[in-house]
Amino acid sequence: MEKALSGSQRATSGTFVTRKESPSTQGKLLKDELAEIIHQAVRDNRSYLMEHESKEILEGIGIATTGYLIARSEDEALAICDKIGFPVVMKIVSPDVVHKTDAGGVKLHLMNAEDVSKAYRDILETFKYQHIEGVAVQRMAKAGIEAIIGVTRDPSFGPLIMFGLGGVFVEVLRDISFRILPITEKDAAEMIQDIRGSDILKGYRGQAVDLESLQQLLLKISQLVVENPEIQELDLNPLFLYPDGYVTVDARMFVSEPVLHDHLTATGAESLRDFFYPQSIAVIGASDVAGKLGYNVFHNLISHHYPGKLYPINPGKASVMGVRAYKSIRDVEDPVDLAIVIVPAKAVEAAIADCCAKGVRFVVVEAAGFAETGQEGREAQARIASIIRKHGCRVLGPNCSGVINTHHNMVQSIGLLSDLKKGNVGMVAQAGVYAAGILTGLSNVLDFGIVATIGNKMDINETDILEYLSDDDHISVIVMYMEDVRSGKRFVDVASRAAVRKPVIVLKSGRTEAGKKAVSSHTASLAGNDEVNSAAFRQSGVIRARDNEHLFALTRAFSKQPVPKGNGVLVITYTGSLGVAATDMLYLSDMRLATLEPYFRERLKNALPDYASVGNPIDCSFSMTPEQVKNLIEIGVESNDVASFIVVLQGEILGSFVDVMKSIDYKEKPVMCVVACKEFMINDVVKMEQAGFPVYSTAEMAAEVLGQMYHYGVRRQSALTDSIARHLTKDSLSVDNNPVRLRLINPNDIGLWTDFVNGCSQKSLWLRFLSPFSATPERAQHFCNLNPEEEVAVVAEMKTGNQNKFLGIARLIKNKRREGEAEYAIIISDPWQNKSLGITLSEQCIELAKKEGYKTIRAETIQQNHAMIRIFRRCDFAFDGKDENMVSMSLNLS
Ligand code: ADP
Ligand code: MG
After folding, report:
1. Pick from 166, 403, 647, 702: most CB atoms within 10 A?
2. What is the value of pTM for the model shown?
3. 52-83 pLDDT, tens digit each
4. Whose CA is nearest to atom 18 of ligand 1?
5. Tens digits of per-residue pLDDT, 352-365?
6. What's the CA gap between 777 and 781, in Å, rounded?
């Protein structure tokens, strides 16, 4: 039986459609003609595109598929086979059949015309009661590693992309990773790396799949979805990955009218500086009656010596706690920066209207009884929102406990608080009770700078505060206790920027059913709320704590100790078993024990009794003394491979270590202490903490925290380097008709750097380094692995065939002795001198220095270095001075 089908679908039978470029889609991935497939489907109220339509779109943006041709008769099916060759696969094409295999609509391994005819008839027979558009005939893909890529949408974070390996990996093990769109190249690499099965992709020997093309595929999907908001969800399930490339075997897109989210608009554009450092505060509801909340708030301001003007507002009083009171905030003659409202809920609206009339820019509503209580409260809150919006007034709360800023002696809390020390920790908490509870206890071992409680966050939310804290120089660690993320997309943007400046540690209870979503795609069914949160945190570089204990373990470490610059750790212990525990956790955290060079091993041996074993961990046994530990640490500080310390101390004699530990010069290498069962030696632990050493009751926690600090540092450096690299205005040029690329040096350049130095003449090296110079592994490490906050190097790199080669290197080094000054040096390899490469490199470095905020660039060289002096002159450096050998030149950038 042969039945000809008349399809309404646009893919023509048996013809590969070629489309001409359309000028109106410039810069966009998807051409108008193909975008029209989506638009038409939306107009027709269809919820998804079938496989062949989806694949046509994918092919149109350069994503390989097994094909999208449709046959509407047996003859057409055979004609397609003539074009594409055997073996082929045939599939039912019907808007009514979503899962084709389950319904018997997929025929694999069709080797010849006979198979194809039979398969065609079988499919028609199976689906005779359904609407059939046709039968897809496509190439049979050769076996590869099966994977899934999908996109779904989250109400708070917007579109998310998923990657996982196919089959049991995703269905049973749920081995998948998510990222929020759009993704960067780095995100793509990380999300592949993130799945547990990623080793399978790398192969046991050599590369099993083409990771580069997989990354590019993820980036393309990201761009496609971002540019076409009608694509709600998408499944490429499966695609086959090969050592060279990949092919998409099945694809489905879910489409609808784009939904506009207002969460994309920022609310915190105006700086909150005056909110955290107000010069004057009015307390509406301030009271003299002990026990009242209005008493507590006003008392806290006075007892902590708030330095600005205070205006208690209380209609029944002439003064409160000796401060002149006012009937209404409107009666205050001078301007008021901030008002705290602590009156019964029903009086809040009027109080806020008064504040707005007075021109107060910031209001903290500590009063409760709003959205948290039900419908009536929600309505009251909405009325307040419309009042403040009209006046451009910003509100914290309601239902919060205000702000503490120890650097401004300002405590707005509802609960009475005793003395607080000034610290570097900034904290955002939802609930005031939580903040107060932990403050009382934690203030023994941790010093806070700013604590903000956001309550119902009707206006100012966690992201606004995060944004401000990242900008406040008193704050070097940010801690967030979050219950829900209000505008996820903006949080990711702000957190990504904040995390480059300082560590952001988040505790998020994520297992709630916050965002219910309609699940249509397979990807959506795999995207639980917590997966989304984890993706957001990973992507923005935020450190996620497991629980409160972990949160403050991390906070104490980041607040008191520098970030380790390497992953080698020296463990000093009095008991072998805790040394083993630390070691295990170090390796689980991608850290390692430092290797001790023979010279250091010898020195360590001399510092220990004969019976002690010299190794890492160093086991001092029960005879451990403070002096001994000091000796060992001082030797470790000198060793290149030791970047940090874990010191396991005896609780019984902990007190005797405090002063000695304080007296050591650690040269910016962090140290973590472990005291087993520390809760029973709490007085000495507090002393140790106050001396600046975090103390953990398990070696595992110390090791884990150290690992998280190190990885934070690595990530931060690479983010900083990336942002500096974006400042290069010119990244390619041609020298003698050879393409040359300008880029920043990175730790993978050790080989190229070494070749470069080996290729330079002794004379060139002498002129640059002013002493005999050769490439040693240590120097290579030192010159390629730069701390971007102190030093950047721009290289000119030429590619010949498969080989890359450095032609020149220019270096800007921050002068630590002179504010705003960078030292500059440059070397060009001998055959490439006098080709104006030096000038181009220098111009780029000058631009970089400007963007990095330097005021001057200084260069020094010997008088004989005519080539270098010529370059500097061409770049407008001025002579500063010279002695008989040296010339000093500088360029003013401001
Ligand atoms: P559905 O997911 O709707 O059941 P698919 O198109 O994914 O249908 O096909 C089911 C399975 O058949 C795929 O997971 C894949 O293993 C295999 N398959 C489908 N198309 C091809 C093809 N062109 N080449 C190789 N294998 C294929
Ligand atoms: Mg499928």
Report:
1. 702
2. 0.86
3. 999 999 999 999 999 999 999 999 999 999 99
4. 249
5. 999 999 999 999 99
6. 6
